[in-house]
Amino acid sequence: MGKSSGLDRLREFLRRSGIEDRVVEFDRTTRTADDAAAAIGCTVAQIVKSLVFRGATTGRPLLALVSGANRADEARLAASVGEPVERADAAFVRQQTGYAIGGVPPAGHVQPVRTFIDRDLLGHAEIWAAAGTPHAVFPLTPGELQSLTGGTIVDLK
Questions:
Q1: Structural domains in the chain?
Q2: How confident is the model at residue 94 (pLDDT cuts 50, 70, 90)?
Q3: How far apart are CA 78 and CA 61, in angstroms?
């Protein structure tokens, strides 16, 4: 994969989804919620963290889209999923989403991933998500996030 392939894939997914290209690229990293908020100039709570888990029983990938201000409560996620969950390792994340940790967007993965959205993200008019690389992000509304991902809104903190 080329350096920009993740970003290119996400841009194409957004285009096909009817969302204009709003990707913002930075010279500095946006890999963590704190880094992204500092680069963008928004609050950490407006950052969408894309956390990939694995169902402990089924082995299926699960995506928790969590406000950057929150820590994902794995027990609450497991209750929503219906099975215990475990954090996915980097190889599993790349295999299941097509993206590396630190740049995983909320949608546009190589295969569908069951998605859960932190209810706290709904309290913001604008939120920011990773755009396929650790140096790119894009703004969207909570409604667009739910529409793009088909995610279930749950309490994750």
A1: 5-154 (3.90.960.10)
A2: very high
A3: 12
